[in-house]
Write a structure and sequence with these properties.
It is a single chain. With about 130 residues, this protein is mainly alpha-helical. It is about 65% helix and about 5% strand. The chain is built from 5 helices and 2 strands; from the N terminus they run H-H-H-E-E-H-H. The chain has a two-stranded antiparallel ribbon. Helix 2 crosses helix 3. The longest helix has 26 residues. It is elongated. The protein starts with 10 loop residues before the first helix and ends with a helix.
Length: about 130
């Protein structure tokens, strides 16, 4: 896990976002335990409270469940819900890209051409 101290994003949020991305990408299996709060805090050289806040947010989003004395484990993920969450991530990334394209003064045709080129690159790398 990579934490950027000066990124402007709170550390707990960076932790939560990285675990969330890993869970949604199925890097953690259903029922698998996350690293203990204390061990993660020690590894990252951060406060246990910061780590706990990240885990609590993951729990509030329904991604993990706390088991007293054992830690946090990954909940089963509904495949339709996962798909919807991935679609929302794509929409957010595309919205950000469109905003950058507008700042760069790109035309709709230039944006389409760029997207088509990226799709071709993706197809050839698979």
């Amino acid at each position: 896990m990579i934490i950027l101290q000066n990124s402007g994003v709170p550390i707990y949020r960076q932790i939560k976002d990285q675990f969330k991305a890993d869970i949604l990408a199925e890097k953690y299996a259903q029922g698998e335990y996350l690293p203990s709060i204390r061990s993660l805090a020690k590894e990252l050289k951060i406060s246990v409270i910061t780590t706990m806040k990240a885990y609590e947010e993951l729990e509030s989003e329904g991604l993990v469940t706390a088991v007293p004395g054992k830690g946090f484990y990954v909940n089963a993920q509904d495949s339709q819900m996962l798909r919807e969450q991935h679609i929302r991530r794509v929409e957010a990334a595309l919205s950000e890209a469109l905003a950058a394209a507008e700042i760069a003064g790109m035309s709709d045709e230039e944006i389409r051409s760029t997207l088509e080129a990226l799709l071709l690159l993706r197809d050839t790398s698979v």
